[in-house]
Amino acid sequence: MRLTTKGRFAVTAMIDLALQQEAGPVTLAGISQRQKISLSYLEQLFAKLRRHELVESTRGPGGGYQIIRRLLDVSVADVILAVDEPLDATQCGGKENCTDEGQCMTHELWARLNTQMLQFLSSVNLQSLVDEQREKDKAKCVPVSVLQDCRTTLQNSH
Question: How far apart are CA 42 and CA 38, in angstroms?
Fold first, then answer.
């Protein structure tokens, strides 16, 4: 089983949005450029995220998207499920009709994996992912010259 680009891109875009939104609404074009995700694909994902009340949009000059819940209250599972990403390792989609006789021999194994995946993804919130990314950014920061220090480099990268 694998997570598709839909779920991965949605989580990546939400982390980017969380990192950028301190300065106000964030454009999808900006996320697209920074994360190398198609703008039209982001538009589809954010329509679903908006319907699930994870983000809100502001129109007009200075407009864009913002996350409307506290980052601590938004789990990775919330994001993935909002964009209709199936979290199902069973062959039958949970319908228990894996074979003509009903459940396959490994149905319960995959159903338990589904439960574990959902529990794990529900336990990880956007705040922790944002904090991890900020720590990575700080670790990568190396002064380029005497005139430019790490704070300037970090501020310009966000």
Answer: 6
pTM: 0.81
Q: What is the rounded CA–CA span in Å between residue 16 and residue 32?
A: 10
74 lies in which domain range? Answer: 5-86
How many domains are contained in the chain?
A: 1
Centre a 10 Å sphere on the Cβ of residue 15 and count the other Cβ atoms it contains.
20
Picking from 46, 51, 59, 52, the residue whose alpha carbon sits closest to that of residue 17 is 46
Residue 81: which CATH number?
A: 1.10.10.10
pLDDT tens digits, residue range 109-157? 988 998 899 999 999 999 999 999 999 888 877 555 444 455 555 555 5
Query: Would 130 be classed as within a structural domain?
Result: no
Q: How many residues does the chain have?
A: 158
